[in-house]
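Student: Send me a single protein entry containing the residue sequence and its fold in token form, directly below this note:

Tutor:
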Amino acid sequence: MAKLVYKIDHATNNFKLYNANNQLLQTASWFLEFGKTSSEIYSDKNKVSYKIIKKFKFWQWKTSYKITNKQKETFFLNSQNKQNSLFKLALNEDIFEVKIHYYKKKSVLKNGVKIAEFNDGFLESKEENTSNLLLKDTTDLETVFLIFTCLKTGVTNQKPLLKSQKELISIQEDWGA
């Protein structure tokens, strides 16, 4: 099965998801509100489809994202380790996992099978604020964009201190871009 290619532009706190034909599919933005970092994902009709609140559990050194959909159902994307390189989301009957790899790559697994890969390293993109997304099936696009938005909530384009590559997960299956 061929991989579907998408592009996500992010300018500071705004995200725009485009297909291969540069058609805008979804948008999202994050903001600080009463000391909390929050995000909203908008449908093509500019209605809020998801609200996200980012929390950092200081004593556990883990990040958690509270996700509320338009039906007011609540889900959580939780870090599984102190390095915040492995996340898990239970959504309906499916379990989504995110693995953060070397060189700013991320893999998304659904029920143990890799369904998507993000490349934030800008290695193959001439646009500095663009992430490449490879996806196996369009039915998972909304969830994968939701996960991407969670992980980018509160992240600025400042150059961070070098994070030890040892804390990240090695890539088992590199899809390329």
About this structure: The longest strand covers residues 24-33. Residues 141-152 form the longest helix (12 residues). The radius of gyration is 15 Å. Helices lie at 141-152.
